[in-house]
Structure formats: structure tokens, C-alpha cells
Amino acid sequence: xxxxxxxxxxxxxxxxxxxxVFAAKSRVFLDQLVSTRLDLSTTAANNSAFASxxxxxxxxxxxxxxxLDLLINKKDDQNPQQQKDFxxxxxxxxxxxxxxxxxxxxxxxxxxxxxxxxxxxxxxxAYDAMNLAKELDATIIEYYQHAQGWCAFVITAHDxxxxxxxxxxxxxxxxxxxxxxxxxxxxxxxxxxxxxLQQLYLTLLAP
Length: 207
Known about the structure:
Blueprint (H helix, E strand, L loop, with lengths): L1 H9 L3 H20 L6 H6 L2 H26 L6 H32 L2 H6 L6 H11 L3 E7 L2 E7 L4 E5 L5 H13 L11 H11 L3
Antiparallel strand pairs: 1-2, 2-3
Helix pairs in contact: 1-2, 1-4, 4-5
């Protein structure tokens, strides 16, 4: 998902990038909720047809990953128009392979309903988020770390914009985590802690 989000941003498709962010977080949330796990290797060992389908899924995933790596790591040795055409062609092929993968998963879910609970995450669209912002009369900020760093998706009732967070790094994260832990003691809630609030604002909100 991290690479998909970055590739969409390279293409200027902010809405698609945001939807991949939602899909990624839904996947993590679902993994935390589901206590029962389906052992695909055991199921495949007992069902040759299932094993064949799973092999096709892994093959499609490998092709998608290879194309994503190609997009992210390709050297800029072409002019801007050639780069744009190249990315468009690769993204088109990625979307085609993803559609095949989704159709194959759908077939597998019909054969084995447990797959639905362990492999398929609920989805939220960018327009759902925009409608929520309108309903709440608020601006929603969705933070995400893609393949090349952190960014913030700023969601309003009318549009979605993305902002890179250049100051968001491991040092910042470590500083904030130490500050949060220090809040449990009175000394950690003194005036000196206000500097961390200012740093938090400048890093996550000011951009």
C-alpha cells in the first residue's frame, strides 16, 4: 500500500492515493480484530484446486510489486512527457493486474467464506470522507507514511489536498513519544513541555 499511495501521488491522483490509505488502515484494523487466522498453506495442502488459485494470486501480486518497484526506482533519464507516458502505461497495467487479483479473490471467497473475514477489509471512498467532512462541518486530516516519507491528506467538503511533511522523521517521532511518556509525571507537564507542543504544531499542522 505504501508504494501504491506514492505511485498515485506521482500521477497526481490524490483521490486514488487517499483510498489506498483507507484500504491500508482498514487492513491493519481488520488484522487486529480478527482472532481466527486462516492458514493458507494448510488449506492449499489439502485442496489442489485451492493451491492452484493461491499460486495465481501470489503470481499476480509478484507482478504488481515488480511494476511498483519499477515506478518508484526508475531513473529520470527521460523528458517530462516521456516520464508521464511511462508512468501512465505502468499504472494502467497495475490496475489491470489488480482487477484480476480482486476477481480471483472474489471467486476464492465464494468457495471458502472464512477468507472474507481474514483477507478482505472494508473500504471507504474519498467521497465518503468528503461527505463526512461536510456533515461534521470540519476539516479532516489523514496522516500516512508512504514509500518516500510522510504526508497529510487534508479533506474538506469540496476537495482533497495532499501536503508532504518534510520534518516528520524518526527523531521527531522519538521526541514526541518521550514527551508523551513524560506527561505521566508532574515535571513533564511544566512550561518547558510547551516547546514540544510548538514543534508538534509546526511539523504536523502548519504545513
